[in-house]
Amino acid sequence: MARPDDWLIVAALLFTWGTAIATFVAIPDGMGKHMFVLTRSQFNRLWQNLFAYVNIYVIAVSFTKLSIVMFYKRVFQILKLAWCLVAVVLIYPITVIITICNSCKPLEFFWTQYTNPQATGSCIDISTFFFANGIWAACIDVGLLIVPVPLVWKLQMHLRKRLAVVGVFLLAGFVVVASIVRIIMLQKNTQSNDPVWTIAPVYIWSSVEPFVGIICACLPTLSPLFKRFWTAGRTQSSSRMTPNSENLDKISGSKNKHLRKFQRGMSADDEVMLTSVCQKQAETTARHLGSSEEDIGTAEQIHVRKDFDVDWNSKQASIRSEP
Question: What pLDDT does 304 receive?
Fold first, then answer.
């Protein structure tokens, strides 16, 4: 049954796809090129894309953070702390969206200030705002990363299991790494005189971060899957070292098959020769026993005496025994 954290992560995935789509759409409009090679229409479209991108990014990462908080609430039963975290997370997108939508007056001055010398208006320092936005998002990520550690440590379970659970949550630190890289790219963009050139890494890492965040948010639920593959891998490794009954049956069947082929390949002459050899051995044994009844042995043993006539006239020597 789907829970609130599941639906929130699905919503986060939809908006995260939006960041990826916006990144690809910005490429033909000159993202990553120098400003002086762009046409006026290209630059206007690129900065309009950037305006929409900021809102999509903020909503995507906020849904991911809310999903993580609701997961903590469900697993650790922390009602008060969870609702406080929800409030902190919600303040972030609301503040950013209101600020970016009122960053320029009039709004179109956000992109016309660079291409239309006759455009009039005013804007906040957009680059500094983006940089502060990145630091704020990274701080929330660090806070959500630290929250479950003391909660897991209080659980009544073996130390090894507690360390494993804490390790799974700490793997979410990858999203913090992505946030830090994004902040570095924003800092370079703030200090650049050619924002079109330096905005490309910001686009890329602003798309990578929410995708990594979704993966990290799903790590606790993927733990049984990893455990299953780990167990299956170890079982297959052991089976390669130990032959099973099926393999033994195959080996035995192969040997019997070769034996049957050998028996079918024998001729009648081969059987006669083997019989003659056995009969000659019997003749030699009888000679050692002696021809008199006194040499046969004690009465407690049972012996059979036979007389043999050998006919050497035929092509193949034959032996006829008489009792």
Answer: 58
